[in-house]
Design goal:
- This protein has 2 domains: 4-78 and 135-203, ATPase, nucleotide binding domain (Nucleotidyltransferase, domain 5, 2-Layer Sandwich); 79-134, Dna Ligase, domain 1 (2-Layer Sandwich).
- It has helices at residues 47-61, 93-106, 138-151, 161-172; strands at residues 4-9, 13-21, 27-36, 70-75, 80-87, 114-123, 129-137, 154-160, 180-185, 190-196, 199-203.
- The protein is of the alpha+beta class.
- It starts with a strand and ends with a strand.
- It is 27% helix and 41% strand.
- It has a 5-stranded mixed beta sheet with strand order 3-2-1-4-8.
- InterPro entries: ATPase_NBD, FtsA/MreB, PilM.
- Pfam families: PilM_2.
Length: 204
């Protein structure tokens, strides 16, 4: 596998990590740095240019050749819409149909102006499914895509920060029992995340 980048595109800073996979399955952290966006990062008007400039400086300074490299980017929670749903116990494509119906009424933007997806988090005692719905406006995706395209990166994945933090916790602390609380304090938004087994709840 080739090296790849992960970028946490927060409001006030970028957290950039370069990972280098090994043949034995080990993932090596090759480079990590927190890059300040300053006051400009809190404004949406030139955020695309600012992220591009900041990343270019980081890559040039560390002599990292990123052309053709995959980039996995995490969007800040203030740009994400997250909603938890409970659906009847159904299988396969029917889950998607139910969630799409719910998305049309729950997402505060027209569905043709957002990219949205869902993840089944678990099931209740009566068999109903606990589902997390997440949506990002197209303009957010387009901004990140433009940055990657201009730098020769391949935008492989865009996730929202609450889901990304939950997945990171589950991967690194799978053995933890009981209820855990994660507190993510950002410059614009603070996320409080509760995790217990398959159950997951977030409030921003």
């Amino acid at each position: 596998m080739k090296p790849f980048l992960t970028i946490d595109a927060g409001a006030a800073n970028l957290k950039v990590a370069l990972f280098e996979p090994r043949d034995n399955g080990i993932l090596v952290l090759g480079r990590y740095e927190v890059l300040s966006l300053g006051q400009r990062g809190l404004e949406e008007t030139d955020r695309t240019d600012l992220i591009r400039e900041t990343l270019k400086d980081f890559f040039d300074r560390n002599e990292i050749r990123v052309k053709g490299m995959d980039a996995h980017i995490c969007a800040p929670s203030y740009q994400c819409f997250t909603k938890f749903l409970r659906t009847p116990a159904v299988e396969g494509s029917k889950v998607g149909q139910i969630v799409q119906y719910e998305a049309a009424s729950q997402v505060p933007f027209p569905l043709d102006e957002v990219e949205w997806g869902f993840e089944v988090m678990g099931a209740s005692d009566n068999g109903e499914l606990d589902v997390m719905l997440m949506a990002l406006k197209d303009e957010v995706i387009e901004s990140l895509s433009t940055v990657c395209s201009d730098m020769g990166l391949r935008l492989s994945l865009v996730d929202g920060s609450p889901a990304a933090l939950r997945n990171a916790f589950m991967h690194n602390y799978a053995e933890v029992e009981g209820c855990s609380m994660l507190l993510d304090i950002g410059s614009k938004t603070t996320n409080v995340i509760f995790i217990e087994g398959d159950q997951f709840f977030v409030r921003s």
